[in-house]
């Protein structure tokens, strides 16, 4: 029989629950069995099923949509070959995440590591910039503010994450991304120094390999920070048993 003390305790407990965390961000997923010989295939299917909800985002969990992706600021400091670039990108908006396809999923339940391979057909972006560019061919650095657009196509992203499991939760401790960009195209559409910007644009178009080497670590760093932050926000709404069952 329920006692008055039990009813009061239950009521207080119910009132103290965080209503938003009572329901996971990703609904309708069936957990995979740890003993399943096709565990990695099962987890890959979960990722594919979750993709539409991840792309849409969810304001209830403070998760923005992933297509388009908005990044307020990216600081740049890169030197290579005959070019040195420092400064910032502002209000970067990238479209195309919804076209990403998960190709492989590897998990080590003993070491708590997760590896995912993604194919990215096309990402298109627009961003404001405030950059200082030094070229060996020019006596003076190019200091410019403006706006540029770009395309990154036929890319492969490999993600390695170390996780921690405690209190029935999975948390990302670190995320390492290896990005293989197929092609990149950058066009300056607004500039305070149009003549110098036009000259720089020609150099960028003639030296695609240099641009790829310059852009790759910037994209990797931004993606790592983005995935670590939003990945843990999503995982915080879920229990381990939502993904893995005994």
Automatic annotation (TrEMBL):
<dbReference type="InterPro" id="IPR038606">
    <property type="entry name" value="To_sf"/>
</dbReference>
<dbReference type="GO" id="GO:0005615">
    <property type="term" value="C:extracellular space"/>
</dbReference>
<protein>
    <submittedName>
        <fullName>Uncharacterized protein LOC112682050</fullName>
    </submittedName>
</protein>
<feature type="signal peptide">
    <location>
        <begin position="1"/>
        <end position="22"/>
    </location>
</feature>
<dbReference type="Pfam" id="PF06585">
    <property type="entry name" value="JHBP"/>
</dbReference>
<dbReference type="InterPro" id="IPR010562">
    <property type="entry name" value="Haemolymph_juvenile_hormone-bd"/>
</dbReference>
<keyword id="KW-0732">Signal</keyword>
């Amino acid at each position: 029989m329920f006692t008055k003390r039990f009813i009061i305790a239950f009521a207080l407990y119910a009132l103290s629950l965080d209503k938003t965390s009572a329901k996971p961000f990703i609904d309708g997923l069936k957990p995979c069995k740890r003993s399943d010989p096709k565990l990695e295939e099962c987890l890959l299917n979960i990722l594919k099923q979750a993709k539409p909800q991840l792309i849409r985002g969810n304001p209830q969990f403070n998760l923005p949509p992933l297509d388009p992706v908005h990044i307020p600021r990216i600081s740049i400091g890169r030197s290579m070959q005959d070019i040195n670039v420092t400064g910032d990108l502002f209000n970067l908006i990238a479209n195309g995440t919804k076209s990403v396809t998960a190709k492989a999923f590897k998990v080590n339940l003993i070491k708590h590591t997760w590896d995912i391979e993604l194919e990215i057909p096309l990402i298109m972006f627009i961003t404001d910039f405030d950059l200082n560019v030094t070229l060996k061919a020019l006596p003076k650095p190019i200091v410019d503010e403006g706006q540029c657009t770009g395309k990154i196509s036929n890319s492969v992203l490999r993600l390695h994450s170390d996780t921690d499991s405690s209190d029935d939760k999975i948390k990302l401790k670190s995320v390492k991304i290896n990005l293989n960009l197929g092609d990149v195209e950058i066009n300056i559409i607004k500039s305070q120094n149009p003549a110098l910007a036009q000259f720089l644009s020609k150099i960028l178009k003639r030296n695609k390999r240099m641009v790829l080497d310059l852009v790759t670590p910037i994209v990797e760093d931004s993606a790592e920070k983005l995935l670590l932050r939003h990945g843990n926000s999503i995982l915080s709404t879920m229990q381990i048993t939502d993904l893995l069952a005994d």
